[in-house]
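Progress report, Aim 2. The chain analyzed during this reporting quarter is listed below.
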Amino acid sequence: MAEKLITEGTEIKFTEHYKRMWPFVKPYWIRALIGILLCIPIGALDSVVALALKPYMDLVLVDKTDQSPAYIPILIVAFTTVQGFLNYAATYLNTWVGTKINHDLKRALFKKLVSLDISFYDKNNSGYIMQRFSSDADMACTGLLDNLKIFISRLFSSLSLICVLIYNSWQLSIIAIVVLICALMPLASVKRRIKYIVLKSVTEGAKIFTNYNETYSGAKTIYSYNLQQKIYNKFDNTLRTIFKLTMKMIQRTAWMTPLMHVIVSIGIGGVIGYGSYLIVNGTITSGNFVSFITALVMLYTPIKGIGKNFNNVQVSFLAIERVLDILDITPEIQDKKNAKELKQIKNDICFENVCFEYIADTPVLKNINLKVKAGTTTAIVGNSGGGKTTLVNLLPRFYDVKSGAIKIDGEDIRDLSLESLRDNIAVVFQDNFLFEGTIRDNIIIGKENATDEEIEKALKMAYLDDFVAGLENGIDTEIGERGALLSGGQRQRLAIARAFVKNAPIVILDEATSALDNKAEAVVQKAIDNLMKDRTVFVIAHRLSTVQNADKIVVVNDGQVVEEGTHESLLNIENGAYKALYNAQFKKKAA
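Predicted structure tokens for the chain:
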């Protein structure tokens, strides 16, 4: 997915950028237009100094008249002051508009992020997501608007200065304008030369984010396996790659500025040479010539550095393309046009000939047929990698089946709205994610308007009430990022408490006790037993001792249901898969 997004859509045309970005610009277009229009007088006022030098030179320095035009210095200061105020106003407006557009774009990107399929997160790392959903938005908006202001002001500065050139000498203007066109010609091929490097730099830049994230999240693993040097080398190699890409960018673009210097110097040299001839002939005055040279230098000076600004604009355009690529992603799992609401579960949940695969032509589940009555507990056991977790992940539509159907009371879950389907399912994972904040914050995520009574009951049913009562801040105690300040058993019980508050009729327990020691498991198992009452429960477990009382036990091996029945009936099957698992576990325990 990452490579696909990087390579596709890179031929979007200039007009297409703005057509598709217009919805983000539209709410602020008046301020944006004012900010752009302010750049016109900012640029045009550059010509005042050059234009004022002609009468000043002719009257004071050449004719040496006593009637020196004293108003000229005053006008120059006045116009420059006005230009300064306009520049401030334009900068303020452009920053205001740019930040607003940037934040709206990030909102749209984040909204897209939380609507994407789980498979997107499977295929893309955290660094890639941070780069594409945050950094690209900054580059697309801020960089483009800043450089747009520079370009517009310089455009009108150039136009006004060219008018000064023509006013002073049309003959010298021909030389100046021809040289100007020659100096700008290399810019035409900039985007083609830098496109690959910019896109490759995005990929490598994402790896930097990933390195930081992995180091933070995996610090204990890094230390316990003495991986510091290996992790450092990985980071160092990424930096070396970025350095090479940076130098390639310099090789392909940095020559433009010195080339423009050379071309511009040829223009200035030509103007001085031909201008001297015109002065001697009396075609132009000394005032014309000084005014012309001043305007020419003011015109050429920003042109010599325009290559860098133009590169930055092209980088911003490429960032816009990448942002639009993201916004164009259509989630595969979404509501149908007239999706129905799931309100309750009366009869059963059926898996009918369900097949699924993560990778094409590599089946994970093969023709699963399973019927679960409402209000019963179904345990799913089997060998590792057999498809147990995948099977229950299909129920809340984390993924969609390749073929077959999952039905609740005869209704295909793909015909139900995602929100109503997931509102009716609570999931307790093996490693539950806790958000930074308080115990209360994490309990009520399933029901924001939960009452204090509901929260207290959930804490009691999850055997967390005594622990919370012993804390100085009680339920409002901060638990740290990912619940770092809690033990493994406390994190599991907190996850169970929020499942209680959600009060969903379907509960999925995905190896909820497998990572705990025996003492913690015993407490958590009591909490789970409370959670399972009067609900339709799917339990995935390795430890068969925790599922012996299930209404039905389903054995899934290699993506197929090989046995199903009660604990006693399955033990009576000679050479049965469940019996083999049971004997292996309890012989090991006895030993």
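The longest helix spans residues 71-113. Confidence is low (pLDDT under 50) at residues 1-12. These observations will guide the mutagenesis work planned for the next reporting period.
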